[in-house]
Each structure stands twice: as structure tokens, then as C-alpha cells.
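Before relying on records like the one below, remember that each one covers exactly one chain. Contacts with other chains, cofactors or solvent are not represented anywhere in the record.
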Amino acid sequence: MSERTQWQRIARRIRVPLGFVFAAVFLWRAQPTWVTMAASLVLVVPGIWLRAYAAGYVRKNSELTQTGPYGHTRNPLYLGSMMIAFGFGVAAWNWLILVVLAALFAVIYVPTIQSEEAYLREHFAGFDAYAARVPRLLPRLRAAATEDEAGSFSRALYVHHREYNASMGAIAIYAALAIKFLYLSR
């Protein structure tokens, strides 16, 4: 069994609740405009798509997924989350939010990714070979070749992982930003 640091265990547990706390601070500090909200779609929409696409491939804790978006990056769900978060940072038009986002991702997601990789390394013999072919976060343009896995997108997996919540959350945040903008522009 691999050793996970205390912080890795804590980071895995607090990442979602901390996201809700940050969302409240985000909405309080945001200074959105129609232009910044429209510009944010360049990151938010592909981020939501990437998360949805990845959720339709991954079979958590039962196999080492290497196809679909997992042939381009080992962490498409986190990459999608970062795109969404930084997209909303653009929508908020507040540099402090962008700086805090970058710090939170460094402090929370780097140890979380390391912890998950330790788990995958323990449970799947092919992880090291996969990690040698596929980058941790920034995607390669062409999918890495896989040895024996042929996967395809599964709508059932997408629904099972409840990834539609990302779309609903994004709509709610845009609605809150629009209300804030309309309220501030009076």
C-alpha cells in the first residue's frame, strides 16, 4: 500500500466543500459584464463538454481508462474543472479571483492528483506505462496508442456519474452573475 500524505487525504476530502465556499466568495467579489460573461464561454463550454465526455468513459476503481479523452490526458475531469473555473474567473472580471483560483488548484488539486495516481499505480499494473505515454494534465494533440483497451462513450456512465450537474451548476452561476450585473448596473 502506498503512503499518502496527510495533506493529500485532506485535499481529497475538502475539494468539493471548498468549491462551494469559494463559489460564495466568487459571487460576492465578481464584477461581471455581458462581455466578460460571453468571453468566459470560450473556456466554460469546452470544460463542461470535456467533463461530460470523460465521465462517459471512466469506470472508477474498476479499470484503468486509457481511451477517449484519457488517451490525451490522464486527468480530463480535472482539466475540464480548471477550464470551467478559470472561465468563470474571466466572467467575474476580478484578478483576485483568478489568483485565488490558481492557488486553490495548486494546493488542492495537485495533491489530489498525486494521491489518485498512487492509488492507480497500486491497483493497475499498466499505470506506469500509461503515465509514460499520456501527460498528467496538459493534453497531447493525438491520443496515445493503447495496447488492449477499446472503449467508447457510454451515456449510461455519464448519467451514473451525474456529470449533468456541471451543466446545471454553470447555468446557475451564469444566472447569478447576470442578476448581479443587472443589479449593479442600476
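The two ends are 59 Å apart (CA to CA).
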